[in-house]
Amino acid sequence: MTLKLYAHPFSSYCQKVLTALYENGTPFELRKLAHDDPQVMAEFAALWPIKRFPLLVDGSRTVMEATVIIEYLGLVYPGPVRLLPAAPLAALEVRAMDRFFDNYISTPQQKIVFDSMRPEADRDPLGVADARAMLDTAYGWLNDVMAEREWAAGDHFSLADCGAAPFLFYADWTHRIGPAYPHVLAYRKRLLARPSFARAVDEARPYRSYFPLGAPDRD
Ligand SMILES: N[C@@H](CCC(=O)N[C@@H](CS)C(=O)NCC(=O)O)C(=O)O
């Protein structure tokens, strides 16, 4: 049975799952979400009316939410790279860092981007200022954590790094990670050098013009 992933290469949450799939060389069929492919869009809408992607389909089972998809892959299609440690407390640390990147890096980053896509009159400057403040706070906290670590949860690349990679990638484009956060910048560089994420970034290059704030000429 071929795994099907409904996703788009430029989406950060999709890159989170693609990084996990590439880490383990897990075979899958990409059902690329594109408005000029109504068949795929209709399949996706029927499977998941919430219409947030990525979405994994394994036979009769539908798995939503990037984190849950990665945990599912580890349980049902384990590969050489274990992305969630077997020891419960070590796994808890990975999950805590995964939540940190979703809630305090990706969520404020997306707030800024989505706000920029609204008509001028519907914008939310206070919400955007709060999101920028949250990113500064999150960069500061992460800088202290990463002073002591190679990967998000310690010595081993994990689920938390799968999310950190695209979220820090786009966060820097949205609200620059300044020189006050050298350990975050060095970590982002390590993530970009990781072959699994580097592949996801390369596959998304053709779509850079989609970035609503304008993609910078780097990375
Ligand atoms: N909580 C979801 C978030 C997924 C998400 O926000 N995906 C974005 C793409 S990066 C999306 O579906 N955007 C479409 C929309 O907001 O309508 C997860 O972890 O998978």
Could you describe the 3D structure shown?
The protein is α+β, with helices and mostly antiparallel strands and 219 residues long. The chain is built from 8 helices and 4 strands; from the N terminus they run βαβαββαααααα. The protein has helices at 12-23, 38-47, 66-76, 88-116, 125-146, 159-174, 182-193, 195-204, and strands at residues 4-7, 29-32, 55-58, 61-64. α1 (12-23) crosses α8, α4 packs parallel to α6 (159-174) and α5 crosses α7 (182-193). The chain binds glutathione.
Radius of gyration from CA coordinates: 17 Å
What level of helicity do the residues show?
Answer: 55-70%
Category from helices, strands and their pairing: alpha+beta
- The CATH class designation of the domain at 88-194 is Mainly Alpha
Low-pLDDT runs of 5+ residues are: none
Mean pLDDT: 98
Counted by DSSP, the helix tally is 8
CATH topology of the domain at 88-194: Glutathione S-transferase Yfyf (Class Pi), Chain A, domain 2
Q: What is the succession of H and E elements?
A: EHEHEEHHHHHH
Task: Give a topology summary.
Elements lengths: L3 E4 L4 H12 L5 E4 L5 H10 L7 E4 L2 E4 L1 H11 L11 H29 L8 H22 L12 H16 L7 H12 L1 H10 L15
Parallel strand pairs: 1-2
Antiparallel strand pairs: 1-3, 3-4
The structure holds glutathione (GSH).
What are the salient characteristics of this protein?
219 residues, Glutathione S-transferase Yfyf (Class Pi), Chain A, domain 2, globular, binds glutathione, alpha+beta, 8 helices, single chain, 4 strands, 56% helix, four-stranded mixed beta sheet
